[in-house]
Amino acid sequence: MSHNDQNDTAAVEIAPKEEDSTESDNSEDSLEVDGMSRLLASTMNLGPSSAKQKEKVMADLTFKGLGDHWRENGFKKIITMVGAGISTSAGIPDFRSPGSGLYDNLAKYKLPYPTAIFELAYFKKKPAPFFALAKELYPGSFKPTMAHYFIRLLHEKGLLLRHYTQNIDTLDRLAGIPDEKLIEAHGSFHTNHCIGCKKEYDMAWMKKEIFSDRLPTCTNCKKIVKPDIVFFSENLPEKFHKSLDGDFKKCDLLIIMGTTLEVHPFASLAQLPGPRCVRLLINRDAVGRPKFTTWMDGDNNHFLLYNRPNNTRDVAFLGDCDEGVLELAKHLGWEDELQELISTERKLLTKQKLQNIKPHAEEAASTSSPEETAPQ
Hints:
The chain is α/β, with parallel strands linked by helices. Helices cover about 30% and strands about 15% of the residues.
């Protein structure tokens, strides 16, 4: 995985095992462009020297500096936004990693192209490949990761304003993050609807159909029942759009984990917090940054500016998400609490599985009214 500008440890913390960069071939070109940009800015008096340098939100914009600031000053309204990278240690592949990503391993489904499996038009014609994949990835086969439980710990401490996730695996629910704190931007298997009459079916019904190798078919109109996962060309949930304005106005720390920051509109959430909100990236790759430094960096809210001259609030830890949250927990003095939470919750999940008790996610899904839910 790539880690750009790893030599500048004053601006970005890098996990030891992530030292080797695969993008070194491009480093000379990048430095050349950076140098030209700075020279032009200086010559035309367009750079930071011609304007008052903006005040940093924190004096030390390193991973350690953020931990120190958090311990001493605290954050009260934290938003987390996450992608598939927080679930890979649970055994769930992400989508875009070369070789190991989901899109690189769909040949057995004989798709016209990898993303077709999440296109509504293709699903309506050939739903079988999606449900075959769904059986492999279905919630209940995997357990939440340390990163999921760190977010749960934020909630337990009263610090979590909202958790935005791209993931459809429901591990956020399984970790015990409550529904009122959770925004599943790309939907999930939590609820399901007929693509014809829109009749609702619960998670347990869908799981039974998928694991019986049956195409889930509506008992009312005989059309296919689809999990409420957002396919390409579909709108994101109403809850996503309604929450944005109020949440990000209050946010004082945005934690971004396990995402490429390439899929919009989700990726644009990083642009929404006010200028005094600290943004922390915990990710294997250096993402969300401009390709090269420009004189406009200081006024550009479209990018994360860690490792940039005009950075006033962005911090990055480049490494595994679990490793990043563990280091943060250690720095905050929360390690024992986090490990205890993980141990307790995993024992509970094991007990529930042995006794066939519904875990957090399925229990919540089964609260639908009898009129809206298919009979078992």
